Amino acid sequence: MSSTVITRWDPENKQFWDGIGKAIAKRNLLISIPALTLAFSVWMVWSVVVVNLPNVGFKFSTNQLFWLASLPALCGATLRIFYSFAVPIFGGRRWTAISTASLLIPATGIGLAVQNTATPYEIFILLALLCGFGGGNFASSMANISFFYPKAQKGTALGLNAGLGNLGVSIVQLVVPLVITTGIFGVFGGEPQTVIKAGNTSLLWLQNAGFIWLPFIAAASIAAWFGMNDLAEAKASFADQAVIFKRKHNWLMCWLYLGTFGSFIGYSAGFPLLIKSQFPGVNALSYAWLGPLVGALARPIGGWLSDKLGGARVTFWNFIAMSGGVFAVLNYLPSHGTGGNFFGFLIAFMTLFATSGIGNGSTFRMIPVIFLTERQREASQKQSGQDQAIRDANKEAAAVLGFSSAVGAYGGFFIPKSYGSSIAATGGPEAALYAFIVFYVTCTVITWRYYSRKNAPMPC
Fold it and tell me: How many domains does the chain have?
């Protein structure tokens, strides 16, 4: 075993795990988490930047701003399809370091572009798409960590990696409004922009929305390169992993994860603009960061609960709660610009964020169990080796974790665009919200039919 490549890895062996496995897995997880947090921060930075672009002189329409908020999710979701298969091909250490370093490109680009109001809209489109690098990182990060932990602890480990990684969404919505109000980089950060609002003049350093992440990205990339490990047993070609496209449960779990993570990232991307459009008297950025924070902190709880109670049971009841959360949001929305209750709306949305986070953890706990059970059943029927079945299951589960996260990430595009389309067509977001309820009902039925009911074909 070299310092970076581990040739033998057997976390299901208690002696191996207690002896050296646990410490190595923990170190890789502790490096993975901040790298993923930064990835989410860069991915979702446009949710804050778009709110401030008109303030500093950019003459973009509301529809153009919604596109900028949506495109990082569209690109990130698409990149996840490819990132899903990267770890077994390139190695977890190498890919984590390289993919984290790639975030330097959009972060630097944003810092430069916002300093000139003559910057074409097309440049902003390109930068929004490049922020999709951050979204892609999630697929490879989760696939990588899944290899390190035994079945009994995967839910908690994946919940911590994803949940604390998801904190990047809340961090960006909390930190960016603060750092753009001061010239923290001095002469190296560029000149401020003048903002005139309601007769009051103030200064903004909007470029700090990109520049603030640069030193942290560099540090995380170096830590990944020198501190993480590649697992020889995790090696697999694309052809080896492509078998998941023939697995029914891959597609079912993609649908369920679209309902959980798709909701989390979509609500996060659209929350600031939704508040601004429905409650114009409220400072959206004062509250927008709360939702992603609640969702991120709830994710490890979902993984932990699923380790104790079973992922399918938690997921089933969680989708019912999500449907109720949307009904509550509808109850507190203003009608045709009048009425409404902002704090009722905020509490209802916090419920939605919390349940989306719990569902993120529970669905990701289901995937390794499903594929391990399926491969072990096949091995028993064929009277073949259980060790090989476990190795095959780990590789398939890692690929499904990544691929389902790709499908789920499209929620980050569709939810804010659904708001925009619904508002344009009907004057409010209600039509989009009713569509979300219908979708959650389908998720509830699928979970019950295949995974949670008595005598379900794949209990997990």
Answer: 1
